[in-house]
Design a protein that fits this description.
Blueprint lengths: L2 E3 L7 H13 L10 E8 L7 E5 L3 E5 L2 H12 L8 E3 L5 E7 L8 H14 L3 E5 L21 H12 L4 E5 L7 H4 L19 H15 L6 E3 L12 H6 L4 H18 L3 E5 L1 H6 L15 H4 L7 E5 L6 H12 L6 E5 L10 H17 L4 E6 L13 H13 L4 H12 L3 H7 L18 H7 L13 H19 L9 H13 L2 H11 L2 H33 L5 H27 L6 H4 L18 H4 L7
Parallel strand pairs: 1-2, 2-4, 6-7, 6-13, 7-8, 9-10, 10-11, 11-12, 12-13
Antiparallel strand pairs: 3-4, 3-5
Length: 628
């Protein structure tokens, strides 16, 4: 392991505080004296962003921006780095990350600071926290009520910390849709159009939005702000229609955006929005990625000026689609930001193989089309059951593609050691939770099999026909064994104990219903007694172990608010397992004559091609009954 000696006193002042934080994070990598390579930093006077490392007796990093220096340090700390001189100059001005903190899990400030350190060593220079209602607004107690909202001071301290590394933090909020969390309260009844959309053209709405923008932007140095505006389905169809009558959705959206832009301008802020609503309004199917979508020039010319569009796309596997949509955004009159995705949503561990594929396509298109600003999103849909740090290999790949244009496997592994002090292959192995044998190619699928295999009802397991349950026990036993061994390495690898516990539980849970149904149909009472006396108790114990692991992980990453949602999921599963045992005992003792739940022939509900599996939320899999 290479060790470095850095003299903070002689280092450029703008780097000292950030270097001090990195040295505290990795104390074994920095020392003084024999066996240590001296590392110096020199700032380039001017020119485009660039870093260069010169190797002589000592190492010298020449950099343009602070983030360039920290990127160089991350490379040098990697196992394969330091063999010679190197230089890098990315074609991007902004490389960013957006973390969702509105879908249950609100990152602890300390956890976000830990993430910022890793981002700095990757060379990522922008960060956003996606806050629908999870920031405080003076005088609005029901905004983010009981949701773990950040205080203004917490956000200011995070912005101060990010600036140590040359990372820009900017607010990322919603000013139209995705606001069901506040609109559920009577306090906001006057600004409600539909269940999740604000009512346009009402003074009370813009008074609230000005409060939102003031509160969200005040803690940050940046004068940029993301104001959302995506997925406003049903805009103008609720209370708005009652008050103002019918009006084309495009006109409502444009007028609303113009009002919100003016609020931003009055506060000296430069807004950006997600672009999908304009494309949806030009599509007969209301689809964002509809190739038949047409936005007439006279319509495009009426989009309010002074607002940047963000093209978000986490789905497409080929570069050409991204290239096409980048040009379609430019045709609307401004240079877009591009937002890709590292798949942390609706799952327990990031879908790394699929994230690699879509990121490769996205970044190739951004380079080819000369895009200057790109960031990766990490959403939390489905309750943020995921360990957000599981996305780090995807972010490392994003950084390598941005800085070098290549996805060199050896370099990514080495640089992941440098930025995260972890084994990338171990983390990718954990994505095997969803990469079950019936899935043809995990690199081309966003399936979340582990989620629906865990949460689907143990007696009414209606998703079983999608998989060969006989193969699942061996698959998950192997994943559990590999991840448990990786977790024992310690350090950052210790967090793999959570996916290992999930795999152990799934090895028992996934084949349960099919095993019970087969034994019941065969009249194998011995096998059913074994299920009651051994199998279900083992599964209940494994679920309890998983629940505790998950709870420990949650409280190390997120504020406590939101965990009650996950508690109820585990509690519901344990209660159903108790009921399964009681049903079997009743049948074996003769108290009940049959178990109808095991007599029903399960049908294949989703007509997917062979080798493909669904991606489903908890609410869809927990029961075949549509009761909310």
């Amino acid at each position: 392991m290479r060790r470095f000696a850095i003299d903070l006193a002689s280092s450029p002042e703008e780097l000292r505080a950030g270097l001090r934080e990195i040295m505290a994070q990795f104390p074994k990598r920095f020392a003084q004296g024999r066996g240590c390579k001296e590392l110096r930093f020199e700032k380039n006077a001017s020119g485009p962003a660039r870093l260069a490392v010169a190797k002589a007796r000592d190492l010298t990093v020449r950099y343009t921006r602070p983030i360039d220096a920290f990127r160089a340090l991350g490379r040098l700390m990697g196992e394969a780095s330091g063999a010679g001189s190197f230089s890098e100059s990315p074609p991007f001005d902004t490389l960013g990350v957006m973390v969702d903190v509105s879908r249950n899990g609100v990152l602890l400030p300390g956890a976000f600071r830990a993430l910022l350190r890793r981002l700095a060593l990757m060379g990522i220079n922008m960060a956003m926290l996606y806050t629908e209602d999870t920031y405080e607004i003076p005088g609005e107690p029901f905004f983010g009520y009981l949701r773990g909202r950040y205080t203004a001071e917490e956000l200011k301290q995070l912005d101060d910390y990010a600036s140590l590394f040359g990372i820009e933090m900017m607010p990322c909020i919603q000013t139209l849709a995705h606001l069901a969390q506040i609109l559920q309260w009577p306090a906001f009844e006057k600004v409600r159009d539909t269940e999740q959309v604000l009512i346009a053209e009402e003074p009370a709405t813009y008074a609230l939005i000005e409060k939102m923008i003031r509160a969200a932007s005040a803690p940050f140095r940046s004068k940029r702000i993301h104001i959302g505006m995506d997925e406003a389905a049903g805009i103008g169809s609720g209370r708005y229609k009652q008050l103002h009558g019918e009006k084309p959705a495009f006109e409502i959206l444009n007028g609303h955006l113009a009002r919100v832009r003016d609020i931003c301008s009055s506060l000296g802020l430069k807004p950006m929005i997600w672009s999908d609503m304009y494309f949806r309004l030009g599509s007969k199917t209301h689809g964002y990625y509809d190739k038949e979508c047409v936005i007439p020039p006279e319509v495009a010319s009426r989009i309010p000026t002074g607002v940047q569009l963000v093209y978000w796309d986490y789905y497409h596997l080929d570069k050409d689609f991204y290239c096409d949509w980048i040009e379609r955004h430019r045709a609307l009159g401004s240079e877009p930001l591009v937002a890709g995705g590292i798949w942390t949503w609706n799952r327990f561990w990031a879908a790394l193989p699929f994230s690699f594929t879509v990121t490769d396509a996205c970044m190739a298109a951004c380079r080819e089309k000369g895009v200057r600003e790109v960031f990766m999103t990490m959403w939390g849909d489905g309750g943020m059951e995921c360990d957000v740090f599981s996305a780090l290999p995807g972010l490392q790949r994003f950084a390598e593609l941005a800085w070098t244009g290549a996805a060199d496997a050896a370099a990514i592994r080495a640089n992941f050691v440098g930025s995260c002090d972890a084994d990338l292959d171990d983390w990718v192995r954990a994505s095997g939770l969803d990469g079950v044998p019936d899935l043809k190619d995990p690199a081309r699928s966003n399936s979340n099999a582990s989620k629906w295999l865990l949460w689907q009802d143990p007696l009414l397991a209606y998703l079983d026909p999608n998989v060969d349950t006989r193969k699942l026990r061996a698959h998950y036993e192997a994943v559990a064994r590999d991840l448990a061994a990786a977790a024992r390495k310690g350090g950052e690898g210790a967090r793999l104990a959570f996916p290992a516990a999930l795999a152990s539980a799934l090895a028992l849970k996934a084949p349960l219903r099919s095993d019970l149904a087969a034994a019941y149909a065969a009249g194998d009472r011995t096998r059913l007694r074994k299920a009651v006396g051994e199998d279900i108790p083992r599964l209940r114990k494994a679920v309890r172990t998983l629940w505790k692991r998950h709870r420990d992980l949650w409280f190390s990453l997120y504020k406590p608010f939101g965990w009650e949602v996950i508690d109820r999921r585990y509690g519901g599963l344990v209660a159903r397992l108790d009921t399964v045992s009681e049903r079997l005992r009743g049948f074996l003792s003769g108290k009940i004559e049959s178990i109808p739940e095991l007599e029903v022939k399960l049908e294949r509900a989703f007509d997917l091609p062979p080798g493909e599996l669904p991606n489903l939320p908890y609410s869809r899999v927990t029961s075949p009954s549509f009761i909310r």
